[in-house]
Amino acid sequence: MNKPILASSAALLVAFYIPNLRAFAEEGGKLSAWSVKPAAIARLAEEFDGGWYSIRPPKGYVQAELSDVTAYDRAGIKVAAWTRETGGSVNPTITILSFPKPAGPGESDRAIFEGFIQSLTTKWPDAKSSEISEGLWNGDPALRFQFSATGENGEAIQGVAVCCVGDSGTFVVSALCVGDAGPGIEELAILKNSAVSCQQKSSPAP
Q: Model pTM?
């Protein structure tokens, strides 16, 4: 099942900008806290305990069965995904990843933007990303951004990624759905709130 993994691949590129953000916060920069909006609570299921993470998935979503995570296991990366079957070519999906602490220094935000756009345009040539927003996610400095693209069959794909780097590693939650108006915008809003509800519960494997 490669669609959940695809949703997370772009988020990985942005995660390595976080060390610069943490320095900003430590120097006294003010970041707003991200939390689930009260209006969205009724659209989310009860909290699910995934062992190394917890999340309130949107109602109607089920935990996805990932067919091949061998490469992730070898790299010490934990991965999980939640999805809702729609019968379309791209199902709405939330992907959760936990990466070991990077050994090297982080890249610049410009390099990350270029890498992010390149990764998306490899799959979707017209992909575009929003500006990166900075905030506090579960008390830690984090980044969040949205992206849009046109799918292979003309689908209007919308996505969001939230990521932060802690002392033990990098935690990334990304999501995508289809639709740029009406129900699509509503679903993306629900996915954003579900992503913000997600928390890392234990350190990733070394």
A: 0.79
